[in-house]
């Protein structure tokens, strides 16, 4: 049985990742890429669907503690029993032309402790039982295109379609296990020295972390989030997946289960900002380059998400042999939201390209040509309904956040023309006209005077946490009474103990998203509230909420997508980039770090937050 979602830690090689529970079981591993079929899928089923556990043998009392080794992605789990103590060190060797390698080293710390290893190979998301045999002392599992090679001095025996062994480690003794994936038609992979691989891996992460420019009061949380973001980066292309998993439920036992092993355009600007503000220009450049390649072509074909290499076909299907995490079915592979129309992504892409240009990240004629092409499409389609940022499976609507991001697209285009002369006067005037038109429409149709807040969609009285971003993107000054009213309404009606839901729940929710059940607090939205409170000058409230959110991280500093206050548990896919990126952003804002790389000038935000609101803004206020 899988552990709690918060019981899992991640290890990875920047092309794939494994999730390892507190009980020493690797219950999720996709090879050779994040979005490849899992060879350990016990997380979404049972042990019959594949896992690899290393832990003390027997059922006697035991104590377990774990941590990442310093500022790395090397996981250390310490076991203490009546007979002694041992440490299991888990990591994946960063790839440098070699196939993917997962390493587990058991080290005796005190006494003599009997350990157990149990390994069940399963390919194809736990459905395919491979043929397992020994070749030159190595345990080899082969089925179809996949093969796994296990190297260890421990003698394992096959029993009931699994491999097991017990062995004793004494103080100072180290026992390695090395698992390597190879295409089944290729020759055997070279054996890997586990101890040398550990040194190489630890040094890689230490060197990478040393480039971080943030040294503020929340450094530990920021560093762990940056490492997690790096772990979710597909190194060959620079694409960053939203999470390492699929179908971990937003509603335990329900149907809100999605595949997040892809790259979303909605994350573009805040990811770029987080990387630039912490000194990771190389990663920012790689992400921006992935973005430009992914959306290149006909703007009518721009998708909301892509595969790690920019793939467009992400057809959704159900792995019906898997019962789902805590019977949360269906288990979905692929994501049908890829076919949705989300007009906000055009604003996200243009905002990211603008931020890159202003921050000195490569910007050339191709980038500007791409931006103009996207703007041309948006000119004709910005006033259409869409599915919005939350990928609802209900009817299309005129979502306020989508309109605000269309405003962002034209606002940034006007700025580029005014400051860099990148377009003709005629085009600039057209963009300026559309920018002002959208602004006026949102203020007239997206604001509910009765609630004193901007709403989820035109004509609605429902709230949506996504409108918190209108302050961050500069749509209105932070002191505008409508902005303050919106923040207060969301704080009052969408949050509990500061934890913010995406939109209103109960019977109203199914009308919007077309799904049954409910969900927990969305952690990204909660961090957006931290930023909004900071921008409207409520720094003490912002800091208190931020520290409350930090307390929700698991024992190794990771966050999933949501937190369910009903069960006091993390829910949703794990770990979630869309939680860790706004964590970084909120920490930097609280400490006013790296403000020259904000999507809007931080000095202006801070000044606006402390100026009194003296009038109702005109339609064009908030423009660059």
Summary keywords:
single chain; 624 residues; alpha+beta; Beta-galactosidase, Chain A, domain 5
| CATH fold descriptor of the largest domain | Glycosyltransferase
So, CATH architecture of the largest domain? Alpha/alpha barrel
Average pLDDT confidence is 91
Number of helices: 15
Distance between the termini: 54 Å
Uncertain ranges:
601-624
- CATH class placement of the largest domain: Mainly Alpha
Structural class: alpha+beta
Radius of gyration equals 25 Å
- Approximate strand percentage: 15-25%
Oligomeric nature of the chains: single chain
The tally of structural domains comes to 2
Principal-axes geometry comes out as globular
Largest sheet: 15 strands, antiparallel
Helix content: 25-40%
Number of strands: 28
Task: Provide structural commentary.
With 624 residues, the chain is α+β, with helices and mostly antiparallel strands. It has 2 domains: 205 residues, Beta-galactosidase, Chain A, domain 5, CATH 2.70.98; 391 residues, Glycosyltransferase, CATH 1.50.10. The strands form 7 sheets. It has a 15-stranded antiparallel β-sheet that branches. A hairpin with an 8-residue loop joins strand 8 and strand 9. The C terminus is likely disordered.
In short:
About 30% of the residues lie in helices and about 20% in strands.
SSE arrangement:
Elements (H helix, E strand, L loop, with lengths): L7 E5 L4 E5 L3 E6 L7 E3 L10 E6 L5 E7 L6 E7 L2 E9 L8 E20 L10 E5 L2 E6 L2 E6 L5 E3 L2 E9 L3 E10 L10 H16 L9 H13 L1 E2 L4 E2 L22 E2 L3 H10 L3 H15 L9 E2 L10 E2 L13 E2 L10 H15 L6 H17 L18 H21 L4 H21 L1 E2 L4 E2 L14 H4 L8 H13 L1 E2 L2 E2 L5 H8 L7 E2 H13 L3 H12 L11 E3 L4 E3 L5 H14 L11 H8 L15
Antiparallel strand pairs: 1-2, 2-3, 3-4, 3-5, 5-9, 6-7, 7-8, 8-9, 9-14, 9-15, 10-11, 11-12, 12-15, 13-14, 16-17, 18-19, 20-21, 22-23, 24-25, 26-27, 27-28
């Amino acid at each position: 049985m899988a552990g709690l979602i918060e019981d899992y830690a991640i290890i990875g090689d920047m092309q794939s990742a494994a999730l390892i529970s507190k009980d020493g079981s690797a219950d999720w591993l996709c090879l050779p890429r994040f979005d490849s079929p899992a060879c350990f899928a016990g997380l979404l089923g049972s042990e019959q669907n594949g896992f690899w556990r290393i832990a003390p043998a027997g059922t006697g009392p035991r104590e377990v503690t774990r941590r990442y080794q310093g500022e790395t992605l090397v996981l250390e789990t310490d076991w203490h029993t009546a007979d002694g103590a041992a440490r299991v060190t888990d990591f994946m060797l960063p790839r440098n032309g070699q196939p993917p390698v997962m390493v587990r080293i058991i080290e005796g710390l005190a006494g003599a402790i009997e350990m157990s290893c149990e390994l069940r190979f399963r390919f194809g998301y736990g459905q395919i039982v491979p043929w397992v045999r020994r070749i030159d002392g190595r345990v080899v599992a082969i089925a179809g295109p996949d093969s796994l090679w296990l190297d260890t001095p421990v003698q394992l025996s096959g029993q009931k379609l699994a491999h097991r062994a017990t062995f004793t480690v004494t103080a100072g003794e180290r026992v390695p296990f090395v698992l390597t994936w190879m295409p089944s038609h290729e020759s055997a992979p070279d054996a890997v020295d586990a101890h040398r691989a550990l040194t190489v891996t630890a040094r890689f992460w230490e060197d990478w972390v040393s480039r971080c420019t943030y040294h503020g009061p929340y450094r530990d949380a920021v560093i762990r989030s940056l490492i997690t973001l790096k772990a979710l980066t597909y190194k060959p292309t620079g694409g960053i997946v939203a999470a390492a998993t699929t179908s971990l439920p937003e509603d335990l036992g329900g149907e809100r289960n999605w595949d997040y092993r892809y790259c979303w355009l909605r994350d573009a600007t805040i990811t770029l900002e987080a990387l630039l503000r912490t000194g990771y220009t190389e990663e920012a450049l790689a992400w921006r380059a992935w973005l430009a390649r992914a959306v290149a072509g006909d703007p009518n074909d721009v998708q909301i998400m892509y595969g790690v290499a920019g793939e467009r076909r992400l057809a959704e299907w159900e792995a019906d042999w898997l019962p789902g995490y805590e019977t949360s079915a269906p288990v979905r592979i692929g994501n049908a939201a890829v076919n949705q129309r989300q007009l906000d992504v055009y604003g996200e892409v243009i905002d990211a390209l603008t931020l890159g240009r202003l921050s000195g990240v490569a910007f050339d004629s191709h980038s500007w040509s791409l931006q103009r092409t996207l703007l041309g499409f948006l000119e004709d389609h910005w006033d259409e309904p869409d599915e919005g940022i939350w990928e609802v499976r209900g009817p299309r609507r005129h979502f306020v956040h989508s309109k605000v991001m269309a405003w962002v697209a034209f606002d940034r285009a006007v700025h580029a023309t005014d400051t860099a002369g990148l377009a003709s006067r005629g085009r600039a005037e057209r963009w300026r006209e559309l920018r002002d038109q959208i602004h006026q429409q949102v203020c007239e149709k997206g604001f509910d005077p009765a609630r004193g807040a901007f709403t989820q969609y035109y004509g609605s009285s429902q709230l949506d946490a996504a409108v918190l971003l209108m302050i961050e993107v500069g749509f209105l000054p932070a002191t505008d009474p409508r902005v303050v009213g919106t923040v207060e309404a969301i704080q009052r009606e969408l949050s509990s103990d500061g934890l913010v839901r995406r939109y209103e729940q109960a019977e109203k929710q199914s009308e919007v998203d077309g799904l049954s059940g409910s969900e927990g607090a969305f952690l990204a939205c909660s961090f957006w509230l931290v930023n909004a409170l900071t921008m409207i000058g409520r720094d003490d409230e912002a800091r208190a909420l931020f520290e409350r959110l930090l307390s929700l991280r698991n024992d190794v500093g990771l966050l999933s997508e949501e937190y369910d206050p009903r069960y006091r548990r993390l829910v949703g896919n794990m770990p979630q980039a869309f939680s860790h990126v706004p964590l970084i952003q909120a920490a930097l804002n609280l400490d006013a770090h790296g403000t020259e790389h904000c999507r809007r000038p931080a000095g202006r935000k801070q000044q606006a937050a402390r100026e009194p609101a003296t009038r109702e803004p005109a339609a064009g206020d908030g423009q660059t």
